[in-house]
Amino acid sequence: MAGLSRVWNSKRFRWMAIVILAMAILGVFAVRFTLFSDGTVPHTGFQLSDPKGDVSLSVGSSYPGMTDIVQGSLNVSGISLTVNLITADTVSSVGEEESVQWDVLLVFENDTDVFKTYSMALVMNSTGFYSTLQDVDSNATEPCNASFKGSTLVTQLSPGELSNATKIEWSITSTYQKYDASGELVDLASDSAPDKGLQTTNL
After folding, report:
1. Which of 8, 24, 141, 167 is most buried (CB neighbours < 10 A)?
2. Mind spelling out the 3-state secondary structure of the chain?
3. pTM across the whole model
């Protein structure tokens, strides 16, 4: 009887282990399906990836690596929204007649409609680095704090409309321009993330 009991307990342990393993595998697949099947993800820690080296050159043959967007994130905490941009190379100063601009489009939506759209610009030129936030409908500007370190740019804002949003659709576009001494455009490059359309972050 004791031997049978040990065998039964051993079989029960093995079956329990199999069931737990199966549940773990199903859980991983469920999370992956939720995150990637329709392009929407939970807002906490969400990362947007973009292929390295996919910058489009319209004019010329060169651009600084900070034009190449490789990753982005949009995180919401209370009434604050933080957008991080990661580039292929260190964000650094540029020379005369050069500029790099990163534009972030933010579309606020509730359960029924789009109710607010912002355009945020982070600009690096020969005079330094600055940022602006503009209401697309009214053209009014609002405070926008931005900074950079290494290959990461960070911007934070607290729009009052954020509390009414149930999701945010967003995208990042970078543009590099360089002119020669006569004012002729010699280099023009751009990158977008995502490459098409907008990314959705559910709140």
Report:
1. 167
2. CHHHHHHHHHHHHHHHHHHHHHHHHHHHHHHHHHHHCCCEEECCCCEEECCCCCCEEEECCCCCHHHCEEEEEEEEECCEEEEEEEECCCCCCCCCCEEEEEEEEEEEECCCCEEEEEEEEEEEECCEEEEEEEECCCCCEECCEEEEECCEEEEEECCHHHHHCCEEEEEEEEEEEEECCCCCEEEEEEEEECCCCCEEEEC
3. 0.77
